[in-house]
Amino acid sequence: MRHCYRVQITLCFFVLLFTACGPSGSPDEINQNWYKGNLHTHSFWSDGDEFPEVIMEWYKEHGYHFVALTDHNILANKEHWVEMKDSLRQATFQRYLDKYGNDWVDFKSDSGRIMVKLKTLDQYLSLFQEKERFLILPAEEISDSYEGKPLHLNATNIEQLIEPQGGSSVVDVLQRNINALMEQRETFGKPMLIHINHPNFYFAITIEDMIALQGEQFFEVYNGHHMVYNLGDSMHIDTETMWDQINIAYLTSGKPPLYGLATDDSHNYHTFGNRWSNSGRGWINVQADSLSPESLIRSMEQGRFYASTGVELVNTEVIENTIYVEIADSTNSYRVQFIGCLKDDSKTRILKEESGYQASYKLNSDHLFVRAKIISSKPPVNPIENMPYELAWTQPVVFSE
Ligand SMILES: [Zn+2]
Ligand SMILES: [Zn+2]
Fold it and tell me: 11 pLDDT band (50/70/90 cuts)?
């Protein structure tokens, strides 16, 4: 049954492609693959507690295809020494030295004080990067602030460090950093991506702030750090409701939709639980023609990805205004909610809910947008908040004439 459904979608997809492309259609529009990645990761280059090589090993071994190491206001491209100043760091260093050896590890030891020179991205890249298997994207977390509010944005696939730009309000600070990335993208003529991080971290970024931005297409609907309040609190709304409200504002004013990412924001690689920021909590899966920064970013800008805290999809596509979702796992049970907003409405609602492993929803011209939320019966392995089940979110879809 599931396979029939899949074949049907695939056939339909190919028929449409051939019809749409004709003889001049680009062959790379066919053979679309899914690539799993995390665009928010910290290491010893800032406040993470592990060496980049060990972090990359973890992600590669856990089936990820791409990772961006996004340390605070730094790119791993210069000489940088860190002190192994406590027993946890010293144990981490010893494991690193045992694994990578004296020829690779650059360190100094003086009267019990151990200093280690971190490897640059150019140095460690070749240990992990593999065509169509694993890609590391140069990135940083631009860590700015306004009147004590932390304002963080991740800049991915950049050539040069973007220093925090500052500004005269929350919106101004965010906008100036977004503009700095756009300028760098223009200068180098290559795709780069900027996304707003954890809006509810210290409740620094409000819906109104996000609505006022120009040119921002991405934010974290889920972040795996333990202090980010994805679910809000008694005074603040959750990031998913925020997402919908922003999209209602964006789409009614003619802006493109805002897409939602899930990320780890991992810092802690040795202590685990809901008071620590661990790997594996949130990721994205991108449908692209190849594992390259250009393909991934192009697909993401078209909304061809989903965000997940554990749910894996075989496929999700939009064909002739119909959203299709097919879930990979068949051991747990699933609900698929199609959440959308009708034109002239001021909030989203659940338009349809289906149980099972496949679901679909057809948009019409009355819809402002529709997205799918997939809810597993399985609890998350290492949750930070009271999210009882693993989830996935597909991106908002707008009816096309
Ligand atoms: Zn941050
Ligand atoms: Zn971070």
Answer: very low
Separation of 311 CA from ligand 2 center, angstroms? 23
Q: How far is the CA of 41 from the centre of ligand 2 (A)?
A: 6
Phi, psi of 17 (to 5 degrees): -65, -45
Q: From ligand 1's centre to the CA of 252, what distance in Å?
A: 30
E strand or H helix at 123: helix 121-128
List, as one string, the DSSP characters of 268-319. Answer: -SS--STTS--TTS-EEEEEESSSSHHHHHHHHHTT-EEEESS--EEEEEEE
Contacts of 31 (CB under 8 A, 6+ apart): 289
Query: Which strand (E) or helix (H) includes residue 89?
Result: helix 87-100
Residues whose beta carbons lie less than 5 angstroms from ion ligand 2: 141, 265
Question: How far, CA to CA in Å, does 272 sit from each of 12, 225, 226, 268?
Answer: 45, 12, 11, 7
Q: How far apart are CA 18 and CA 25, in angstroms?
A: 7
Is-contact 362 321, C-beta < 8 A? yes
- Three-state secondary-structure class, residue 34: strand
Q: What is the pTM of this model?
A: 0.92
Q: pLDDT category, 21, cuts 50, 70, 90?
A: very low
Phi-psi map region of 334: left, alpha, beta (phi>0 left; psi -120 to 50 alpha) = beta
Q: How far apart are the CA of 198 and the centre of ligand 1, in A?
A: 7
Q: How far is CA 168 from the centre of its chain?
A: 28
- Which ligand lies nearest to the CA atom of residue 197 in the structure? 1
Distance CA 128, CA 121 (A): 11
Q: Determine the distance separating the centroid of ligand 1 and the alpha carbon of 231, expressed in angstroms.
A: 17
pLDDT for residue 112: 85
Which ligand lies nearest to the CA atom of residue 164 in the structure?
A: 1
For residue 145, the ligand closest to its alpha carbon is 1
Closest by CA to 156, choosing from 140, 180, 142, 143, is 140
| CATH no. of 32-80+118-394 | 3.20.20.140
- Among all bound ligands, the one having the nearest atom to the CA of 41 is 2
Whether the per-residue pLDDT at 259 is higher than 90: the answer is yes
Please state, in angstroms and as integers, the Cα–Cα distance from residue 94 to each residue in 50, 119, 146, 267, 299, following that order.
Answer: 12, 16, 40, 19, 41
Report, in this order, helix, strand and coil percent for the chain, each rounded to 5.
25, 30, 40
Q: Which helix (H) or strand (E) is 158 found in, with range?
A: none
